[in-house]
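User: What would this chain look like folded?
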Amino acid sequence: MYLEELSIPIAKLQGVGPSLGKDLNRLGIHTIIDLFLHLPRRYEDRTKLIPIISILSKGGKGFVNTLAFVEAHEYFWFGSQKTLKILIRDATASAELVCYGRNFLANKYPPGVQVRVAGTFTYQYKRIQSSSFDLDNPTHPSEDFSSILPIYPLSGKLSQRLLRKILRQGYAKYGINLKDELSESCRATYALLPISEALRAIHFPKSMEEPDLGRRSLAFRELFSFQIEVIRRGMERKVAIRPPRQLPLTLRQRAIHSLPFPLTEDQYRSLAEIDRDIEGSCPMARLLQGDVGSGKTLVAFLAALRFTEGRIQTAFMAPTELLARQHADNAAKLLEPLGVRLAFYSGKIPLKLRKPLLQALSKGEVDIVIGTHALFSEEVRFANLGFVVIDEQHRFGVDQRKKLADKGIHPDILLMSATPIPRTLALSVFGDLDVSELKSLPPGRRPVETHLARIGNEEKVYSWVEGELQKGHQAYFVYPLIEGDGDLKDAETMYERLQKSIFPRYRVGLIHARLSEEEQRSIMEDFVKNRIQVLVATSIVEVGVDVPNATCMVIEHAERFGLAALHQLRGRVGRGSAQSYAFLVYDPNLTDLAKERLKVLKETTDGFRIAEQDLRLRGPGDMVGVRQSGLLDFSIAQLPEDMELMMEARKEALRLLEEDPGLLRPEHAGLRFILELRFKNATSGGAP
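Assistant: Here's the prediction, encoded as structure tokens.
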């Protein structure tokens, strides 16, 4: 039997009745495999004696495992709440055992008897105390007092002892003889335990080192299965389904010559990579990732011109109407003089305008349509859709992207992300995509100067912004909340204060997600045209807003934003030739993690380096662009700690598939690897 076949209901185990079954279900344990993959949160080494006095050298909290004498009993509270307190002493110190709901221990352990005590103790109010402990007979200690004991998350009336009993029963019946689908040579190469041994090492370890080895052994299999699926999907996509084609380049060359600046080397290289895909015999699926202001949208427009000239339609989708309209405005400036027929489409377009637009799309009278998620609605049809561009791709699910791609016949797909992902992670998570990177900024752009200011020193920041406003420039002020909760500054309150008290000579605007899209568009248009000099906002301005005259970005309560969000917000300035500034105003009572995040922003404007630090500090689950990749669905693997293991699993998967490409067939019995059932949705980050 293979582990992933153990979908046997947990109720099949002897002694697991309806009540206990509900408590197990609340923990996510419905089957035998769920039981095996319910991992301990920590371990207690009860093979060694640890005296009470050791708590004082452990910062006032820690595990104790000792032989002690019961000195006395005390009670506190009265009536039904009357609670026993057992006073004990070992050879080093005294302590109190608070017996919530366990007054029966008074009869079992009267004063004068010797007991074996194990539990978590704390030192406070000049007393060492525990309310989470086990007691046992020292002359005949149970197995729980002579082994490495796993401590699990619990629910309801489920106890540690009862859960361990259920695990022993389940392992004895289903776990000991589990078949292993990794070869012996593979296990030896990567120092992995067989499946049954890995489970034993996690749940019934013989040493404190075994659980880590067991977890690593299961994590490798999980990552290996993940990589098999990612590679299989990528190779499946690369099967030739069309003859190689050549699309004209005349329109693109005319567009490049019309630009007031030269393209960067990265932009030329990315275009060359996209061209190779376009001319290939299988549809393109490429991720174009680059720093804020690196020119991804321009690359996408230039790529689309080859399709336009070849009479093939392009759909360009953005996550918000604000961003989609801005793309449409920029496209009009660049592409309409070349004769390109553009259209904008969103759910907000009135019906009387929508019908003729949809007809024009279906007849091929529109070359490039730019819009929101409304583009993948059923009413939108194309005459010949061949190129799909999806901006801020992480904001769309795979199913949504697929709906749009299915409106054409195997269209080329370009996904774009303004939040760079470290290349090692991109290859591992988006391994079925080809990756292009834009690292260099267009000529004339200056790095944004970043300054940190503690709350209380804002006046210096306001004074600096005033100086920039006097030069004719503009500024953003960003807040974590729309309206106040008492503890944090909020956009609505600060809008009033900035307008009336701080910048009364200038016009201040307010934008946030609760405003209608029409109001948002009107406010942004006023800001773009410098009819508003100070824009107060939430993180709604994080992506896509392009105002070259804005030179100051002030983010108050910066510690409340993630690294990626802070970098994106900072990228809203520095888009013109003037020197720009970002001010991160923070609460002085910062955590160590928050201090490190702000320090990273202060030291670099390189989005790729920031992404590496974001991965190191917070892991990929919190990284924009990876959140929908399925990494959070891993049951065993923990990234970034297991990043090296991920690369090893990828290496082994590639080696195996090179030896036997037939293993790529989804129905192949040899690919029933561990956790297939648990993470079958974990590969949602790549191409549709």
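DSSP finds 21 helices and 20 strands in the chain. If you want, I can go into more detail on any region.
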